[in-house]
Every structure is written in C-alpha cells, then in structure tokens.
Write a structure and sequence with these properties.
CATH architecture of the largest domain: Alpha-Beta Barrel
Number of strands: 18
CATH superfamily of the largest domain: Glycosidases
Shape: globular
Radius of gyration: 22 Å
Structural class: alpha/beta
Distance between the termini: 34 Å
Strand content: 15-25%
Oligomer: single chain
CATH topology of the largest domain: TIM Barrel
Strand order of the largest sheet: 1-2-3-6-7-8-9-10
Helix content: 25-40%
Mean pLDDT: 92
C-alpha cells in the first residue's frame, strides 16, 4: 500500500465516514464487507478518485484510423471532460486464421510492437505525451490469456502455450478460432508477459491497463503484475470481469449484470424492479471502495448487440444519466457523443459517423458534474446511494447520492407518457437543475415528461 496515497486519502475518508455514520446511516445501501484486512492490497491512483473513462477504437475513430488522426481530436475530448483514455489493443494483429479482412484487435502477434495500420511508435509516443499535456491518462488494453496463431512466442517459446493430445495449439473458446490458449500457469510465461507490460510503462509512460478476460487468468498473476508495475508509478487497473476477489489486484471491474438488465429493459424484457434488484445485488457483492465501471455500451455491446438507439430507444439519455450518477465510474464509447446508432464492424473498416456531435454538450455536463461533485466520486470517498420510492415506481426510477456536503438527485421517467408522482418518504426541497442552472423546487407531487430526466444538485451543511 503506497504511503503517499494513503496520506492523501486518509483525511477525506475520515471526514466522509464520520459524517456518514452521524448523519446518513439510514440513507445508504449496505455494501459487502471486507473479510480480511489484506483484501485491498493496492490503492487506486489519486487522480482516479473523480475520473471517468472513454474507450477508443483507433481503427474506426477516423477515416485514417491512425494514432496521429486521433491525437488531433484530443483537445475536443479534453473540453468534453474526459479523464482516462482506454485504447483498445494497439499491437500487430495475427494473419493466420484471421477473422475478416483486418482481424480482431484481440489477436496479438507481438506484445511489444505497434500495429502498423495505426502508425509507428513515434506516433504513439506523441499521442500519450499530448494526452498527458491535456491532463488525461492513457491505459492500454492487454490480452494475457491468448495470442494469435502466428504470434512471435509460437516460434520463440512454444512452451508458453497449452496443446492438445497431438501437440497442437487450440483456441480457448470454440468460436475464438483466431487465437490460441496460453498456459496461464506457466511462470516463465508470466515473467515474459510482465516484462512486456513493463516495457510500455517504462518507455511510453502509460498509466495502466484494461485486462481482457481477466477472470480467465490466475489472480496471483495479476497481483504479481500490479506489484511490479507499481515500482514505476501509480497504476490504474481495469478488469474485464465481475468477480469481487479480483479487486485484490484491480481498481475497477465491469458492471455486467447491471448492463445486461439495462439492455433487457431496453428490449422490453425487464422492469425497473429488475433494475433495482440488479443494483442491490451490485451493492451486496462489492465493497464500497471497489471502483465499478458503469456503461451503456462498449466495443463488445456495440458490435454484437446493436447501436444506442437499437439498445435503448427513446430512453438512451435516461440510461446515460443513470450510468453517470448511480454508483461507479461512467464509461463513454467513442462516437456516443454523436449518437452511436451504428453497429461498428469488428473485423473490417467501419468508421464512426460523427455528424454534428449532438450529445457533446450533454456528455460534457454529465462529466463535469461527475468530476466536481464529491457525491459522485469513485470508491469510498463518493456519496452514499439512496433509492427514493414513489407511487409510480413501475415508470419512475429516482435516487439520491449523498456526499459530505453535496447531494445529487436523479429522477428518470422511463415511460412514453408524462407522469405525475409523489415520493413515499417525502423529499421536498430546493435544488439546482444541473443542465440549465435553474432553481427547482421539489414538492409533494412531481411531474416529468416522457422518456426524460431531472438531474439536480445542492450543497448542504451538516449539523
């Protein structure tokens, strides 16, 4: 545990815990409790406390599909309020058994090389340096479970792979036929993999990694990775997983169950009661200090499930507000600020249609609130969650985030009609509308338009 980071967190944690215990004991959902003092071995970097994350698909981001073209757009993303850039894999893609024309980003040939379609290492260095200069962090997507069939290691270190009874390589999953399974228990492979990860931190000053299918690789490996990488700088680690125990090595995990329920609601096969249950399960399984990534889409959901309108219809903005305020770190997938209503091809060139950035201001407002309002901060420092029951809960989903001196109230109408409702517990008071800065009085009865939201905030003093 880093002493400097602990000294930074300690005063904030003490003040939040004291206020929480004395003022808001009845307002919060109870999170899972730690079972041992050693469960959290690493603290998130200080800069991650109020960060958000933006996923970048270099291939589809621009007509050129290059680092240089993406770098030119960084000032716009900074203005939108983006804090963490998650770059999908940047490595050369396998040719043997390749899917489609361009192949999967997750079929890695060489862990220390650059996909020449994106540019060269100088272009990548410029991207990272520019992002850092604009106050953003950069994390790389890392595939530790498998490689391409024609990866460098298949020639130099075939012992790094599992083989069948005939001595042949094989895919980890039947329909992942463009990749082959590494022997994830081979300690020599661990060392080579960790050295490759260290290379990108040492040479390019990257700020962390998103671990592809992290749950398929032993936890001990990831703990070793974190120990080694922390020797360079504070790291931010995102696990593509939803196993609580992985938070022993990772800062953040996926809210897969919640995301599936959101999509099911969009498809008409789930209710708001199901959404509430998924959220409650989230609280029950994870400790409050665990960062959780909340998303409406990402590269997988978009390419295999559908565009934003396909998934959520007229409730897309409601779910975007939900993802930015409920509990966790919001993810934006590139293109959503223009309304990502296309289903991007995964193995072919299919550039994002940027149009007029119609949701740019919308996301800018959400990210600004998420960054500056302590009630929405990540982990233990963030405010408690309180569900607000109404007499129209089949249509209305309302809740507060209650921080030290700040509160956020979110009211979402998921129905296609204007709704008037009352809060069962009484939540009257004066608030500020986040989107237009107008004052809003919440009375005993509230009326809200179809498929719309109120996002409100206020500052209050504890007694």
């Amino acid at each position: 545990m880093r002493r400097a980071a602990l000294l930074f967190y300690l005063p904030i944690l003490i003040s939040v815990v004291v206020i929480s215990c004395t003022q808001h004991q009845d307002h919060s959902h109870h999170h899972a409790a730690a079972t041992t003092a050693d469960e959290q071995q690493f603290l998130p970097p200080q800069w991650a406390v109020n960060a958000n994350i933006y996923e970048v698909n270099i291939r589809q981001y621009s007509p050129e599909g290059t680092f240089a073209a993406f770098t030119e757009d960084l000032p716009r993303l900074q203005e939108m309020g983006v804090r963490i850039l998650w770059l999908m894999p940047i490595h050369p893609i396998g040719e043997l058994n390749r899917k489609g024309t361009l192949g999967s980003y997750y079929s890695i040939r060489d862990y220390t090389a650059i996909n020449p379609e994106f540019g060269d290492k100088g272009d990548f260095a410029e991207l990272v340096e520019t992002a850092h200069g604009l106050g953003m962090k950069v994390i790389l997507d890392w595939v530790a479970n498998h490689t391409a069939w024609d990866a460098v290691w298949t020639e130099t270190n075939p012992e790094f792979y599992l083989t069948d009874e005939d001595g042949n390589f094989f895919p980890p999953v039947d329909d992942w036929e463009d990749v082959i399974q590494l022997d994830v228990n081979n300690r020599d492979m661990w060392e080579a993999m960790i050295q490759a990860m260290e290379y990108w931190v040492r040479e390019y000053d990257i700020d962390g990694f998103r671990a592809d299918v992290a749950y398929m690789v032993p936890l001990e490996f990831w703990i070793t990775v974190r120990e080694r990488l922390e020797q360079f700088k504070p790291m931010f680690m995102l696990a593509e997983a939803e196993e609580p125990e992985l938070h022993q090595a990772f800062d953040m995990s996926y809210t897969w169950e919640l995301a599936q329920t959101m999509r099911d609601f969009g498809a008409g096969s789930a209710t708001l009661a199901d959404l509430d249950a998924a959220l409650e399960n989230n609280f029950n399984r994870f400790h409050k200090r665990d960062f959780r990534m909340v998303f409406t889409t990402n590269h997988d959901e978009n390419s295999w499930q559908g565009g934003d309108r396909d998934l959520y219809g007229d409730n897309f903005k409601n779910f975007a507000v939900f993802a930015a305020t409920v509990w966790g770190m919001p993810l934006i997938y590139n293109g959503q600020e223009s309304g990502l209503n296309q289903q991007l091809e995964f193995f072919e060139k299919d550039e994002i249609q940027w149009d007029e950035y119609k949701y740019q201001d919308f996301y800018t407002t959400l990210l600004d609130l998420n960054t500056r309002n302590q009630a929405l901060f990540n982990g233990e420092i963030g405010g408690h969650f309180k569900k607000m029951a109404t007499d129209k809960d089949q249509y209305i989903f309302a809740y507060k985030r209650i921080g030290h001196h700040e509160q956020v109230m979110t009211i979402l109408n998921f129905s296609d009609e204007e709704r008037s409702f009352t809060f069962k517990d009484g939540h009257e008071g004066s608030w500020t509308n986040v989107f237009d800065s107008s004052e809003m009085e919440i009375s005993s009865q509230v009326t809200i338009g179809p498929n719309s939201y109120y996002l409100l905030e206020r500052v209050y003093m504890s007694h």
